[in-house]
Design goal:
This protein is an alpha+beta fold and about 350 residues long. It is built from eight helices and 16 strands. It has two domains: about 5-135, Nuclear Transport Factor 2, Chain: A; about 150-340, no CATH class. The longest helix is centred in the first third of the chain and has 21 residues, at about 25-45.
Amino acid sequence: MILNAVLCAFLLQQTLSAGDLDGASPLATEQAVLSTYKRMEEADRKGDGQLWFSLRDRKTLDTMDAGLKASMRKGGHSRPEVRYEPQTVRVSNERAILIGKVVDPTAATTQYQNVLFVVEGGAWKVAREQWSDAPFDPFVLYGLLPPEPGSFARSGAWRHVPYASPNLQTLGKKDVVWKMQATFDEAYLYIRYEWVAELPAPGSRIKPELADTGKTGAPPPPPSMHIRVAADGDATVAPHELTIAVRDVVSTRGAFDNQAKGPANRFFVGYSLYVQNAAGEDVFEYALGNDSTGRLLAVQDRMIEVRIPLGGLGIGARSRAKLQLEEVGSVLRILPYTVERFGK
């Protein structure tokens, strides 16, 4: 299930100031987000387009189509019986993510949504909203609102992390494969892939003839990995599995060609992280554009670094869970790898 962001729902202003947020308890701030979500239900029931505009964040309003704005100013479709049912909420500083269920008895529909809130001008505003016909995976809570970097990220001590062993039974002496390291701390599971040569930098230009083939000039992608979580005697941890993959992608931007006196496309290198659940369903995608470093994915020199929030794996900061990585596929180039906790 790849999730598509769409313009939807209606928002209402909430009155907690930024100063109040700084001094508010986590519970009080969470209740403020829930209150805003409840009032979103009220706005949806009324179909109040002006109210919708008043509570969108500035970036969303600036990028909206003028025709759509004009249409919405005339008023939206009202759904008097609709119910917004919050299921999970997570707040971090002046950002929050909420997963909810929206039930419309009149239309006999049930949908699921996640809402990214930001504080702007002292009020909670909706910055992004996604809808799905199926429930969202809990990973979305942490993928859209990742924690701050953990102790390992601050140390940068990759030189102390062992490499995974290549599978010499399937690899020849001349085979070139990705090297892999992994560790975890109180916040993230860190996986680093290493190639033999420098990788195309995110945002670097691609020649049109190469882009037409769907290629970026990057080497074959690193192996996809199953992440398996075992309790290892920790009663707070349930067995869990996710699969991750990193791929280079061709990013296209429109430009104006002076010679052709018309629009032309330019092509750039991008990278994306894909996450699947144990059933093989797509639950999250994270794209890295012009910047070489993001919260969940970084590409620099010969290295690709992936950061998976432990919360998305159902693991607490002090958990004694056991983590293992295993390459996806029937022919393994890298042997299964047991991940050691940083500083253990």
